[in-house]
Design brief:
Immunoglobulin-like; 8-stranded antiparallel sheet; alpha+beta
Length: about 280
């Protein structure tokens, strides 16, 4: 009798463990937004992937502003494991300016990200600015500025910094999407370090700059996105890191390697002619 009870309990335990195992083995869900900053009336597009697909199980997306629930939706997962949902940033819930949190829950996994929301569109400008690399083309920095205009962005390799020239007509902010491959701030252990942000209302002479605060609003393996508050009259913004793209960028390195290979081939040819 006791053996029978043992086998029943063992069988039930095995069935339960097999039933819950796929959920526990689910790979982490990912989440992203189409932009780091939105304004009233914009469409906030939330998208991502799931590792293991469970038939009939939706992704639950929530958008919060502090403790206030702004949006919630259940989204079906496509056959390739992707999902997306578009929210219109308007209405009674989209009132407070600031940092909003977007989360995606699938089975027991949860992923989160943040973005900035502003209630009014005032002097908004968004673009990608090409920054010159000495002797090696350019790389792109994405930006959004509110209250002014970005005139130019230069790289200072000696200071490991980016110098942004602006015209700011009213209080606002500057959002920079910085590609890690070209510009970053890291410790010797490859851990993220803070940037130093300096702002000047006058010339770009060192004595005219004062240190300013910034907020990091997005981080990924490829980019770091920061938001810098600006005041009327600000003209120069310098972001100092620990690394800028090497003197020999990818194009120069390719040329250098090709030239080296050609020299080796020519050298071998001459040797072959001489000793044959």
């Amino acid at each position: 009798m006791s053996n029978r009870i043992f086998y029943v309990i063992f069988t039930l335990t095995l069935v339960i463990s097999l039933a819950i195992h796929p959920i526990e083995a689910t790979e982490a869900v990912t989440i992203s937004t189409s932009s780091d900053i939105y304004y009233s009336g914009d469409y906030v597009v939330v998208f991502g992937t799931v590792g293991t697909i469970f038939e009939g199980m939706p992704v639950i997306i929530r958008i919060h502003n502090d403790a206030n629930l702004v949006e919630i939706a259940q989204v079906n997962v496509a056959k390739d494991g992707t999902y997306f949902k578009s929210f219109n940033a308007s209405g009674s819930q989209w009132v407070n300016e600031g940092t909003y949190q977007a989360s995606a829950k699938y089975a027991t996994e949860v992923a989160e990200t943040t973005f900035e929301f502003f209630a009014q569109v005032i002097d908004k400008s968004s673009a990608v600015f090409p920054v010159d690399i000495p002797n090696s083309g350019t790389f792109d920095i994405g930006y959004t500025i509110r209250g002014g205009e970005v005139k130019n962005i230069n790289m200072d390799k000696e200071r490991n910094s980016l110098l942004i020239e602006t015209t700011v007509d009213s209080n606002g902010n500057l959002v920079l999407k910085l590609p890690r491959e070209n510009f970053d701030a890291q410790t010797n252990n490859d851990e993220d370090e803070i940037f130093i942000v300096l702002i000047s209302k006058g010339t770009n002479n060192a004595e005219d700059f004062a240190q300013a605060q910034y907020e990091e609003i997005g981080t990924s393996s490829d980019y770091r996105t920061i938001r810098i508050p600006l005041e009327q009259g600000d003209k120069w913004v310098e972001v100092v890191g620990t690394y800028v793209i090497p003197e020999f960028g990818s194009i120069v390195m390719m040329i250098l390697l090709a030239a080296t290979a050609s020299a080796i081939i020519v050298s071998k040819s001459k040797l072959s002619i001489r000793y044959n």
